[in-house]
Amino acid sequence: MKRTRMIPWTSLLLILLWPVAHALAGTISGTVKVNGLRSPENILVYLDKAPQPAIDLSGARFAMDQQNLTFIPQVLPVPVGATISFPNNDKVAHNVFSLSRTKAFNLGSYEPGKSKSVVFDKPGIVELRCDVHAEMLAYIMVMKNPYFAVTDEQGRFTIPDTRYLESHGITGIPELPAGRYTIKNRHAKLKTDSQTVEVPATGPVSVQLNLSRGTPGVLYK
Ligand SMILES: [Cu+2]
User: Are 192 and 125 in contact (CB under 8 A)?
Assistant: First the structure.
């Protein structure tokens, strides 16, 4: 009697738990701890070599806003091929430009309420400046694959960051296949570190990156 009742319950448990474990497979979550930096936020964390699934950019929306003499966000990662708009939501005119090899451009001076856009067709870093306000600085990270994230104010991240991608109109990014990956970081004031992460066939994996101040390396070799 007892035995016949045990079997269905075990099966039910397996049926209930299997999708949970499966849904978390192929996701790397982690925390970044920094030495010598006020906050562990806005650090790009990414997989150097990873699958490059086709990304549907038809609904993608990315913007680098200008408000109160500041670029928002400070770090904007986008998949290669993405278009970014540069709306001026400030009270004064700005002149956004880049001298970076990844994408050099100069949008010229434009008034509040106006916007311009640029297509980012080559992977790499783009340093943004404003011709009028020397203190304005932000970074666009043009990424080879969708397996990247920017840390939150507590240094946390998840790869792939489906919430981030979906909030910018990109859906259908597959989980990471099981395997060994190299996770790297990029921040203007931190040394680039790399760590090997083994993504198992099932279940999530978590890592901790301990970073310190220094000169960063290149995004891609
Ligand atoms: Cu400006």
Answer: no
